[in-house]
Design goal:
alpha+beta, Nucleoside Triphosphate Pyrophosphohydrolase, four-stranded mixed β-sheet, three-stranded antiparallel β-sheet, 2 helices, 7 strands, globular
């Protein structure tokens, strides 16, 4: 790994009013984890703020506007010879928005509850981020 190459990845943990979270299956043609379920997001473009990059990625991947609620998790991992910093944001769809997947990115999507997190093949760090999101959502009910 190159010691000085770092990418920032922003991810939307999108929840609905039933405290379910949006996950999408990566397209089979993807080189990185084809067919794996994930929360949507991606890399920042030069000059973008974290929130601008997140909004753009969500528009590109699921054709929706989102409301960003809070940054709640961060972790690092190595991929493609780079250190990546992944930042997870709790979000919800803007009123009236319905996901329309970009088939180059994803083949299907689901809304999952906290009891379903373990059923899907995901990266361990993303599973941890999902668990944290469900704890936040549960805490809001109190």
């Amino acid at each position: 790994m190159s010691e000085h190459l770092t990418n920032i990845v922003v991810v939307a943990i999108i929840h609905n009013d039933d405290d379910q979270v949006f996950v999408a299956r990566r397209a089979a043609m993807k080189s990185f984890h084809p067919g794996m379920f994930e929360c949507v997001g991606g890399h920042l473009d030069p000059g973008e703020t974290l929130e601008e990059g997140l909004q753009r990625e969500i528009r590109e991947e699921i054709g929706c506007e989102i409301v960003i609620e809070e940054l709640y998790d961060a972790f690092t991992y190595e991929s493609e010879g780079m250190l990546k910093v992944e930042l997870s944001y709790l979000c919800h769809l803007a009123p009236g928005e319905v996901p329309k997947l970009n088939p180059e990115d994803h083949s299907e999507y689901l809304w999952i509850g906290s009891d379903e997190v373990e059923k899907f093949e995901k990266e361990d760090e993303e599973t941890d981020a999902l668990r944290k999101a469900f704890k936040i959502l549960e805490g809001r009910k109190s």
